[in-house]
Design a protein that fits this description.
By secondary structure, the protein is an alpha+beta fold. Helix content is 29%, strand content 40%. The structure holds coenzyme A.
Length: 156
């Protein structure tokens, strides 16, 4: 399949669009969504990098990660509903891993909800392994909170 996605660095001018994308992706899950201000405060922290997945100049996805010495964490990853099931998340995750590796980290961590089979499948296919759990980690509106799974990928 032709890869019609492109990857761009998240810049200061992209924050409104990135916040809208985050809301569109995580709002339906009942999770707290990141505002422009949240993103603006995040991207200036040491080691934080944001990546946009783009199709024909439009934003299709967003990922934010943080590298600290030899460890890194994936802080968020989402693909807009209209662009899902086309390999975009896989492409975005590959770009995150490439960035993390080039930054010198050797381990990438993330958290995912136990009730998020799409994301769990994405991460497992990429080689992430479950290494822990966070009880009642995800607040989902009026629903009972969902547990989170901590996953780790060792980069070689
Ligand atoms: C999870 C998410 C990022 C997947 O994005 P996507 O672009 O549709 O994923 P891709 O097309 O790249 O799929 C890659 C793999 O993910 C898994 N996957 C994606 N969507 C899936 C679904 N609805 N059900 C089951 N597996 C799914 C599959 O393993 C898939 O590989 P395959 O196509 O060979 O079966 C997207 O659904 C999303 O943004 N969800 C809301 C936000 C979220 O949950 N983010 C992750 C938080 S940890």
């Amino acid at each position: 399949m032709t890869d019609h996605f492109a990857i761009a660095k998240l810049g200061a001018l992209d924050l409104d669009r990135a916040a809208a994308l985050h809301a569109e992706s995580f709002g339906p899950l009942g999770e707290r969504t990141w505002t422009r201000q949240d993103l603006a405060e995040l991207v200036v922290l040491p080691g934080v990098a944001g990546l946009l997945l783009q199709v024909g100049g439009d934003d299709a996805g967003l990922a934010v990660c943080q590298v600290a010495a030899d460890e890194a964490e994936l802080l968020t990853l989402a693909v807009r509903p209209a662009h899902r099931r086309q390999g975009g998340a896989r492409r975005l995750l590959a770009a995150v891993i490439d960035h993390v590796r080039k930054s010198g980290a050797r381990t990438l961590f993330l958290e995912v909800g136990v009730d998020n089979p799409a994301a769990r499948s994405l991460y497992e296919a990429q080689g992430f392994c479950a290494v822990g759990e966070r009880r009642a980690y995800y607040q989902r509106g009026h629903e009972p909170p969902a547990d989170g799974i901590v996953m780790r990928l060792t980069l070689i």
